[in-house]
Amino acid sequence: MNKLINYLFLLCFFVFSAMQAQAQPVAPDVLARSVTDEVIAIIRADKDIQAGNQKKVFDLVEGKVAPHFAFATMTQLAMGRNWRQASAEQKKRLTDEFHILLVRTYTTAFVQYRDQKVDYKPLRMAAGDTDAVVQSLIKQNSGAPVAVDYSMEKTDSGWKVYNVKIEGISLIENYRNTFNTEVQKNGVDGLIKSLVDKNRSNAQVTQK
């Protein structure tokens, strides 16, 4: 996955980072539009983040942003049919390691943000819906706008992201292909080991 794709996936964290601060339920698109400017302003103003302080960025993403993603749902979808063959303990380890992998991946990409702007399309959602897709356009300094769609589910603790699509390319499907290949070769335990190894390698970067 190239740096641009990593960066664009990262924007979904920015968009929903202030979700817990909302006192009343808010439509997903309204929430996204209202918090984006605030979060981007914080990024621009934080000298440590701009200087590339990976440890500070990791703590920010883990503490303020990650709680708004449905990592259990994301892991199950990424595993696909292989989820059924995993034990309860393996499912927990897979979810934990996938959570860490995504957070560390986006932490590494975090400092790539510059002056891109985000526009949102009108939300198509009926009253009572518990699943929604927030459609956005990332306007870059050069080149055509990039379409980014956030699939969200309504939970007891609010709306949470469970997938991201960039120009039709699905984050979940991308990982599903990778996970399936690893499981076919080395089983579920082999996939867990692969995730652990990647997280250990990434940790050496974010701890600096």
Model description:
The chain has helices at 3-15, 28-45, 47-50, 54-65, 71-79, 88-110, 171-206; strands spanning 117-120, 131-139, 146-155, 158-166, 169-170. It has one domain (3-206): Nuclear Transport Factor 2, Chain: A (Roll). It is of the alpha+beta class and 208 residues long. Helix content is 55%, strand content 16%. It has seven helices and five strands. Strand 3 (146-155) and strand 4 form a beta hairpin. The longest helix has 36 residues, at 171-206. The model is unreliable at 17-23 (pLDDT under 50). A five-stranded antiparallel sheet has the order 1-2-3-4-5.
Overall geometry comes to globular
Poorly predicted regions are 17-23
Determine Rg (CA atoms, Å).
17 Å
- The CATH superfamily bears the name Tgt2/MlaC
- Strand order across the largest sheet: 1-2-3-4-5
Structural class: alpha+beta
CATH third-level topology: Nuclear Transport Factor 2, Chain: A
How much helix, percentage-wise, in residues? 55-70%
Report how far apart the termini are: 23 Å
Average pLDDT figure: 79
* Portion in strands: 15-25%
CATH architecture label name: Roll
Q: How many structural units, i.e. domains?
A: 1
Total number of beta strands: 5
